[in-house]
């Protein structure tokens, strides 16, 4: 249960009693709980979307739901995505890492954030009420099953960085446990399309990890966050495409 509390504390803004563990290694030990926290987050989003849908149009309800989504996570993964995009402007791994450590957001990061959030809003708005609820349950869980796998496959860009510490704290079974939990959530909520969506989401996060690893000579915590955001977008797009083709 300590790992679950640590996962809730890090992945959301929900207040959790007790003192937080220090360092990324503690998060690595909690990685298997990430999809569980994602599913709980999705349940809150599905409920909020149902309430918003009763009062507003589908588009406005989707906007409010995605806004709540980012607020509940503290925007931590969006921050990682923006840092990664800004870092691509560097000429070598050292400069890219330096840019990513800068707290200011650049043009690449700002444009990327806008496009990602717009894609999520449009995908949610395109779904019917029942499909929206299931997609909102599945997407956060699927996406949070990816960090353990990405961290296991790619080394840290900095020996003392957050990504390296997270990787060091991973247990041998953490990637398999996280992916299995995400698969159960995907299958239970969306059936076959959920399994397909998990495949696309996981591959998307791995592609982000591989791409950034080549440019940074490893990965960082920002890369893991960017992978989560990528996976969430891809899951929503797969579900929206599946629904559109079935009409």
What would you note in describing this structure?
- The protein is mainly α and 247 residues long.
- The chain has one domain (2-8, 26-242).
- The chain has helices at residues 2-11, 24-29, 34-55, 58-72, 76-87, 93-101, 107-125, 129-143, 147-153, 162-169, 174-190, 192-216, 221-245.
- The termini are far apart.
- The relative contact order is 0.16.
- The model has no long low-confidence stretch (mean pLDDT 92).
As a percent range, the share of strand residues is under 5%
Q: What is the count of helical runs?
A: 13
Give average pLDDT, whole number.
92
Query: How helical, in percent, are the residues?
Result: over 70%
Largest β sheet strand count, sense and barrel closure: none
Low-confidence stretches: none
Count the domains.
Answer: 1
* SSE class: mainly alpha
Instruction: Give me the oligomer status.
Output: single chain
Gross morphology is globular
Q: How many DSSP E strands?
A: 0
How far the N terminus sits from the C terminus, by CA atoms, comes to: 43 Å
Run of helices and strands: HHHHHHHHHHHHH
* Rg over CA atoms: 17 Å
């Amino acid at each position: 249960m300590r790992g679950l509390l640590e996962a809730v504390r890090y992945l959301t803004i929900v207040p959790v009693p007790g003192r937080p563990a220090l360092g990324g290694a503690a998060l690595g030990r909690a990685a298997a709980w990430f999809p569980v926290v994602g599913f709980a987050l999705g349940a809150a989003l599905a409920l909020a979307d149902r309430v918003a849908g009763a009062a507003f149009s589908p588009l406005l309800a989707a906007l409010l739901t995605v806004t709540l989504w980012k607020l509940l996570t503290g925007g931590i993964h969006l921050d990682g995505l923006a840092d990664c995009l800004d870092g691509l402007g560097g000429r070598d791994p050292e400069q890219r890492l330096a840019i990513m450590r800068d707290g200011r957001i650049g043009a690449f990061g700002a444009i990327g954030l806008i496009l990602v959030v717009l894609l999520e809003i449009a995908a949610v708005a395109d779904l019917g009420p029942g499909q929206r609820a299931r997609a909102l349950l599945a997407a956060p869980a699927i996406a949070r099953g990816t960090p353990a796998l990405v961290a296991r496959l790619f080394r840290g860009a900095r020996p003392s960085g957050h990504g390296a510490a997270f990787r060091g704290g991973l247990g041998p079974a953490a990637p398999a446990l996280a992916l299995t939990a995400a698969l159960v959530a995907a299958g239970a909520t969306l059936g076959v399309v959920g399994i397909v969506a998990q495949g696309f989401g996981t591959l998307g996060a791995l592609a982000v990890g591989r791409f950034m690893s080549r440019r940074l000579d490893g990965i960082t915590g920002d890369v893991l966050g960017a992978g989560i955001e990528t996976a969430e977008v891809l899951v929503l797009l797969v579900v929206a495409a599946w629904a559109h083709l079935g009409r």
